[in-house]
Amino acid sequence: MARIVMKFGGTSMAGIERIRRVAQIVKQQSDAGHEVAVVVSAMAGDTDRLVNFCREASSLYDPAEYDVVVASGEQVTSGLLAIALQSLGAKARSWLGWQMPIRTIESHSKARIDSIDGAALTAAMQSGEIAIIPGFQGISEDGRVTTLGRGGSDTSAVAIAAAVKADRCDIYTDVDGVYTSDPRIVTRARKLKTVTFEEMLELASVGAKVLQTRSVGLAMKEGVRIQVLSSFTDENTNWTADDLPGTMIISEDEMETDDMEGQLITGIAHDKNESKITLTRVPDKPGAVANIFAPLADAAINVDMIIQNVGREKGETDVTFTVPSADLDQAMQVLEGARESIGFNRLIPDSNVAKISVVGVGMKSHAGIASTMFKALADRGVNIQAITTSEIKVSVLIEEDYTELALRVLHTAYGLDAEDAA
Ligand code: ADP
Ligand code: ASP
Ligand code: MG
Fold first, then answer.
1. Which residues surround ligand 1 with Cβ inside 6 Å?
2. What are 185-218's pLDDT values in tens digits?
3. Residue 11 CA: which ligand is closest?
4. Which atom of ligand 2 is nearest to the CA of 48?
5. Beta carbons of 387 and 322 less than 8 angstroms apart
6. From the alpha carbon of 178, which atom of ligand 1 is closest?
7. Which of 115, 357, 389, 410 has a Cα-to-Cα distance from 91 of 20 to 30 A?
8. What does the pLDDT look like over 316-371, one tens digit per residue?
9. Given strand 194-196, what is the order of strands in its sheet?
10. pTM of the model
């Protein structure tokens, strides 16, 4: 018998009917004799609604109170799932972040899990009670409610799996696994049977939101087995614990050599949540870029892609970079405030951009991956505004309107299209 953490995302928890279905899936595992903890998200759309309430109440809201508001969505669904399980005759109770407790550090609205006391939870699971934990939330050192950043319930699930030494962490969502690209956009995307931690980490960090990036990093560090699978199955489905049909996230050692050599590119992701900023006529001299990025770093704004354009005449140059769209206004303010020390002419924001990334460990030992990307995009008239690479990734910045076209064209160019697709 196994100890399992099951996580259900927002679409899986959207409404009482769906929650009843989730209760059945959970009960199946419990009836099979497994010890079960369940981590739940808020109903789809609820967290957005709560975030908007905070913004409406004040544009400069207190992040600690924001956490109190946005953490409430998960409190509702955890209680409802416990009720639904009880009505099926199962023993179940909810465990809020502060009750376990899940201790977090760092800032409100983007807290990180420091430690989880899994003792009481483990004892409850051993006694045959199903433990339901609201994802996304924790408690700060001074006893206040915190949240882990958007999509954070995945990270809660992995952290709980590590704390109770679970055999597996099953992430149930609205697609039945990790695909070569977002299956809602690329209809020819193929489901992957396995993905390495390294690739999943890279895919998530460049926009494949099927798993929150931090959850993958944590699973890699703690050795948690993650599987992604769908909760949208009919009532006759009765999976045994070892026979789940999703995507398994594995270490490179577990990967069969054939897989590694057969597939150069694992997947293609997109991210529409970055914005571009260009500073024109910056002095082309030592220290100039430091003057731009130091104040942004001080304001805790992450800069991703950076390009310094070819120098103009008179010792001047243009500098372009991207920041998360959520931080664009603040970044503009910070740079405007540093206008004198930087010495630029114009400050131009552009949120109409998207980042497209191809990811694959096979890239480490192969040339020509980037040029295939550039050529495929050029053939369709898609202009590349910035480029970054890592050992297993190439990313380009393009105009947002071309996102879907770029994903599909690249998917075909790298030979990833499913054979039986129309
Ligand atoms: P949940 O609410 O269950 O956490 P999310 O919406 O956060 O679900 O993540 C699931 C979504 O991720 C899918 O509906 C899909 O559109 C998107 N997605 C993006 N890239 C991929 C990919 N490579 N494979 C599968 N899903 C992906
Ligand atoms: N409800 C939170 C969000 O929408 C956390 C999660 O679902 O993972 O971001
Ligand atoms: Mg999610």
1. 9-12, 41, 151, 173-175, 178-179, 181-184, 208-210, 267
2. 999 999 999 999 999 999 999 999 999 999 999 9
3. 1
4. 4
5. no
6. 24
7. 115
8. 999 999 999 989 999 999 999 999 999 999 999 999 999 999 999 888 888 889 99
9. 92-94, 130-134, 35-40, 3-8, 168-173, 226-230, 247-250, 194-196
10. 0.91
